Amino acid sequence: MDGLLVDSVTLGVPGRVLLRDFALRVGAGSVLGVVGPSGSGKTQLLRAIAGLRDVDAGSFSLDGQSRDAMHMPSWRRRVTYVGQRAIMLKGSVRDNLERPLGYAAVAGKLDLPRTEAELSQLRLDVALLTQEARSLSVGEQQRIALMRAASIAPDVLLLDEPTSALDAESVEAVETWLGAQIKAGRSAVIVSHDAAQIERLAAKRVNLKDFMPEAEHAG
User: Are 33 and 201 in contact, with CB atoms under 8 Å apart?
Assistant: First the structure.
């Protein structure tokens, strides 16, 4: 499999180019770390790969198939973004975990024993399933968002600071969980301010500073 390919991407915000001629490739069952200075566009890059914002130039493909040739909902199911600030839908945690399984492209049902085991693996109380999702702590929401994203069996997880609100034990639990996802054949692109985490998780890394216009990092 070719994996995820991002080729010759130019990405900007009003009045400023963030990245020029950016490229990456991440194969199945591997993790790529994305680092760079503050304001270099790490979050914007993940959102662009996921199809959540436009780019000025460049292309995206998965296993040799261009994103332009896919329906965007199909791309977003296969290349799934999890933001640093998790968005919880109205309803219980169980409602949030079941919601994506009702989409036509997924058409699955919640495996309750497996879900309870995964909650425990991520150091979350099983009783949270009946709790209002928006009442959870930020760290709890982050972990529920990871579970929800993985439930639709994406090929690629785009993770933006996935453990920023967690204590050390919960960080370790999430990293173990991610390792199981990778062993299952998924890949991940991870942005983290924690250099040690990138060192632990990512076999390869890319520094966005190398793709910033010269004027942005000449000093």
Answer: yes
Q: Average of pLDDT values for 174-179?
A: 98
The rounded distance, in Å, linking the Cα atoms of 157 and 5 is 14
Residue-wise pLDDT tens digits, 97-151: 999 987 655 557 889 999 999 999 999 999 999 999 999 999 999 999 999 999 9
Judged on CB neighbours under 10 Å (0-12, 13-18, 19+), 121 is middle
SS3 113: helix
Identify the sign of the CA torsion 145, 139, 89, 32: negative
| Helix 168-183 and helix 112-121, axial crossing angle in degrees, nearest 10 | 130
Query: Element (H or E) spanning 16, and its range?
Result: strand 16-26
